[in-house]
Specification:
Number of helices of chain A: 10
Shape of chain B: globular
Helix content of chain A: over 70%
Structural class of chain B: mainly alpha
Oligomer: heterodimer
Distance between the termini of chain B: 52 Å
CATH class of chain A: Mainly Alpha
Order of helices and strands of chain B: HHHHHHHHHHHH
Strand order of the largest sheet of chain A: 1-2
Low-confidence stretches of chain A: none
Number of strands of chain A: 2
Mean pLDDT of chain B: 84
Order of helices and strands of chain A: EEHHHHHHHHHH
Number of helices of chain B: 12
Helix content of chain B: over 70%
CATH class of the largest domain in chain B: Mainly Alpha
CATH architecture of the largest domain in chain B: Orthogonal Bundle
CATH topology of the largest domain in chain B: MetI-like fold
Shape of chain A: globular
Structural class of chain A: mainly alpha
Number of domains of chain A: 1
CATH superfamily of chain A: MetI-like
Number of domains of chain B: 2
Strand content of chain B: under 5%
Number of strands of chain B: 0
Largest interface: A-B, 62 and 59 residues
Strand content of chain A: under 5%
CATH superfamily of the largest domain in chain B: MetI-like
Largest sheet of chain A: 2 strands, antiparallel
């Protein structure tokens, strides 16, 4: 069931492979887009800002966290989809897409893995920033002072602090963001295209697990085994997300002990 | 000398790179709000805000989304009240009767994990339970599922706030000979503004969460008219209206999205305001 790639509930075929692949692809794209800006922003917020700038930036990030996923979905449809359809798609398809099939612009509608990844990237960005910021602020002050007094520039100091204390925190932030992105439903459902196939390119449509549950849950009563299949999908989602959360938690606990 | 210049250059480069990332995030937030506002205002009218949908609503007919607005408010309010009755006592118990215990530690871990569970899983869980006990999609089922979703948010936020209460408060209160229950009352009074903030945040999350309500609360064109009847909600309304092919209905989806965003913004700003404002009478 986990590895089967045919989805024909009427014939009793419940292959989860396309959905798992869809979830992983969407999340991977989101992570690739958001990790570096997120970590850098978190570092900036912790190390470089004055109290006044913080007082503006923090509420801004809280606001971004508070926006419901449907709104992100609407934004995706209004902004991201046309952007991919008219600008990004043709551009990347004509350059990178010629040599790498991963970037081939195969689906002119714009509803794609990339669109979902971009929306998700924006959604989990504040999460990464908040965790990295918190971790960086808990790093000992003396370390910074010692480095600065040796004549290191601010960035060199930061680099060193991240390497010494922040690495595990950054890892925890990434793991948490990954699990959040993995379980996100509606925003993804609205922009990902919902075609049950293993996506071959970032411009291909996909069908992640949460979208599968959301789309089919109500109408499954008539088909035998459908409900168990849906519950199986929910279980899979639950297990993956829980494992990631516990991992992130373990990382943080371990780090606090070490510090 | 050249090395000095390289180091300086590296510093400047990374500072600006980091600033660029943050400015980018701010720009995206602005774009989101601007797009929702500009598209939403085109579809917004008094009729939409004050009337439930009429028969041909999803084909471009008359009516509004009052059913969804009221439904969302009922769902989120009910869930927030219910969750606060569970979360607040648990948190206070954790701090008054069992501080630094294994129990409190385990509970925090459990709440953190619950927080991480996607709301669609709660929705599926709620639906499975409903089927098992023969309950149909209804306001009650929606409220119960949403309560599950926001308990960890409420409890962990409030937990952080209670943890910030000064230690002296405990020592002083108990030294005066009061019981631990009386100390609990003092702690509650001390953290009341924080509790209000946590409630507002949880309310904001509850009202925006669609995935948990999709199959538990159902959807209807009628105004909410009973605990055991299906109820409409704003996020689900946005989702349904947007999936129709008619531009007139889609324009309403944007208007509904604007209404939802406005509610969220107001609640979010109110939460930040209460945190600052009501904190004045609290012992620090």
């Amino acid at each position: 069931m986990l590895t089967g790639d045919v989805w024909h509930p009427q014939d009793g075929l419940f292959g989860f492979a396309p959905f798992i692949a869809g979830s992983v692809a969407v999340t991977a794209v989101a992570m690739a887009l958001t990790i570096i800006p997120g970590v850098l922003s978190g570092i900036y917020l912790a190390e470089y800002t004055t109290n006044r700038a913080r007082a503006i930036l923090k509420p801004m990030l809280d606001l971004l966290v508070g926006i419901p996923s449907v709104i992100f979905g609407v934004w995706g449809i209004l902004v991201i989809i046309p952007l991919i359809r008219e600008q990004i798609g043709p551009l990347i398809g004509a350059t990178l897409g010629q040599t790498f099939p991963l970037f081939a612009f195969t689906n002119p509608s714009g509803y794609s893995v990339l669109a979902a990844g971009m929306v998700l990237a924006v959604m989990v960005f504040p999460l990464i920033v908040a965790v990295v910021d918190e971790i960086m602020r808990s790093a000992p002050r003396e370390m910074r002072e010692a480095l600065l007094s040796l004549g290191a520039t601010k960035w060199e100091t930061t680099k060193c602090v991240v390497r010494r204390c922040g690495m595990t925190g950054v890892l925890a932030a990434i793991v948490l963001a990954f699990s959040r992105a993995f379980g996100e439903t509606l925003a993804v459902l609205m922009v990902v295209g919902n075609v049950p196939q293993v996506p071959q390119s970032i411009f291909a449509p996909a069908y992640p697990l949460p979208a599968l549950i959301a789309n089919n849950y109500g109408e499954m009563m008539s088909v035998p085994m459908y409900e168990s299949a849906m519950m199986g999908a929910a279980l899979l989602l639950l297990v993956v997300v829980m494992v990631f959360n516990i991992t992130a938690r373990a990382i943080v606990v371990r780090m606090n002990k070490g510090a | 000398m050249n090395r000095q210049k390289m180091r300086k250059l590296e510093e400047t480069f990374f500072t600006w790179l980091m600033r660029f990332c943050l400015i980018g995030a701010g720009a995206i937030l602005t774009i989101i709000l601007w797009v929702i506002a500009s598209r939403g205002l085109q579809g917004l009218s008094w009729e939409i805000l004050t009337q439930p949908p009429e028969g041909s609503f999803y084909l471009g007919g008359g009516g509004g989304i009052l059913n969804a607005i009221m439904g969302s408010l009922y769902l989120a309010t009910g869930a927030t009240i219910l969750a606060s009755f569970i979360a607040a006592p648990v948190v206070l118990f954790m701090h008054v009767y069992a501080p630094h215990s294994k129990f409190a530690h385990g509970l925090r871990l459990a709440l953190d994990i619950m927080w991480g569970i996607p709301s669609i899983v709660y929705g599926a869980f709620g639906f499975a339970i409903m089927v098992a006990i023969g309950l149909r999609a209804s306001l009650l089922a929606g409220i119960l599922t949403l309560t599950l979703v926001i308990i960890p948010i409420l409890a962990r936020t409030y937990d952080e706030i209670v943890a910030m209460a000064p230690r002296d408060l405990r020592d002083v209160t108990l030294a005066l000979g009061s019981t631990r229950l009386e100390y609990l009352g003092v702690l509650l009074r001390q953290t009341l503004p924080g509790l209000l903030t946590a409630l507002l945040l949880a309310f904001g999350r509850a009202i925006g969460d669609a995935a948990a309500m999709l199959f538990t609360a159902g959807y209807t064109d009628n105004m909410p008219d009973g605990l055991l009847r299906p109820v409409a909600s704003l996020p689900v309304a946005v989702f349904f209206q947007l999936s129709t092919p008619f531009p007139a209905v889609q324009a309403r989806a944007y208007a509904s999205a604007l209404v939802l965003t406005t509610i969220i913004l107001v609640v979010s700003l109110l939460a930040q305001w209460t945190m600052r404002r009501l904190g004045r009478h609290v012992i620090r």
